């Protein structure tokens, strides 16, 4: 695979590396902790770094407990089919905090998402209604960013949706595959890669990224 040199127009988007998505968390992604050292190494090479943080209200509409249902069942909401999750990343909770070993002191912005009680949010750009914007596109555009490198948790949900919405917003996008892990719920990982590829999202490895 060819090497990719990082320059002034590049940004690293670190998606939801939070306690609830890592080992022992309420919605732990298999092997999720493994992304932390990879991301820590990557971060030093990027001029623009953004962290996204799942930040749900108590009793959020995406929680199975809010519907008297079991986790991972689905329901239909105003904006479409919603996977019902275990309660996770409740605002201000220990589970919502970033992984204690994630060390990214040069990050300049934290985008909190999912704080609207009646709308879920996977993407760091647009909430699940495909209308409510987080402001991330405007921020990175004003910073002169043209190309996004997306990593974090989970490949088939928040990372994938962030990557695809980044493409829809007009950015070049690459997903750093070894800096991500997936839930893979009923084939969701393969579908996510197909959908990303269809939009022109590239797959890269951290070893092939040359820091600025």
UniProtKB/TrEMBL annotation:
<dbReference type="InterPro" id="IPR000868">
    <property type="entry name" value="Isochorismatase-like_dom"/>
</dbReference>
<keyword id="KW-0662">Pyridine nucleotide biosynthesis</keyword>
<keyword id="KW-0479">Metal-binding</keyword>
<dbReference type="GO" id="GO:0008936">
    <property type="term" value="F:nicotinamidase activity"/>
</dbReference>
<comment type="pathway">
    <text>Cofactor biosynthesis; nicotinate biosynthesis; nicotinate from nicotinamide: step 1/1.</text>
</comment>
<feature type="domain" description="Isochorismatase-like">
    <location>
        <begin position="11"/>
        <end position="202"/>
    </location>
</feature>
<keyword id="KW-0378">Hydrolase</keyword>
<dbReference type="InterPro" id="IPR036380">
    <property type="entry name" value="Isochorismatase-like_sf"/>
</dbReference>
<dbReference type="Pfam" id="PF00857">
    <property type="entry name" value="Isochorismatase"/>
</dbReference>
<comment type="similarity">
    <text>Belongs to the isochorismatase family.</text>
</comment>
<protein>
    <recommendedName>
        <fullName>nicotinamidase</fullName>
        <ecNumber>3.5.1.19</ecNumber>
    </recommendedName>
</protein>
<dbReference type="InterPro" id="IPR052347">
    <property type="entry name" value="Isochorismatase_Nicotinamidase"/>
</dbReference>
């Amino acid at each position: 695979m060819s090497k990719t040199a990082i320059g002034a127009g590049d940004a690293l988007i670190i998606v939801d590396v939070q306690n609830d998505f890592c080992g022992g968390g309420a919605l732990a992604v298999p092997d999720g902790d493994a992304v932390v050292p990879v991301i820590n190494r990557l971060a030093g090479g990027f001029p623009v770094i953004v962290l996204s943080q799942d930040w749900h209200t108590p009793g959020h509409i995406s929680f199975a407990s809010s519907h008297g249902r079991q986790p991972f069942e689905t329901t239909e909401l105003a904006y479409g089919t919603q996977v019902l999750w275990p309660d996770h990343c409740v605002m201000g909770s220990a589970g919502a905090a970033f992984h204690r070993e994630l060390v990214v002191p040069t990050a300049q912005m934290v985008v909190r998402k999912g704080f609207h009680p009646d709308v879920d949010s996977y993407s760091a750009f647009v909430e699940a209604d495909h209308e409510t914007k987080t402001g991330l596109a405007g921020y990175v555009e004003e910073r002169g960013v043209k190309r996004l490198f997306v990593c974090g948790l989970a490949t088939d949900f928040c990372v994938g949706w962030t990557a695809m919405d980044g493409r829809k917003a007009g950015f070049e996008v690459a997903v750093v595959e070894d800096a991500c892990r997936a839930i893979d719920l009923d084939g969701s990982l393969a579908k996510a890669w197909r959908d990303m590829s269809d939009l022109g999202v590239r797959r890269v490895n951290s070893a092939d990224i040359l820091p600025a």
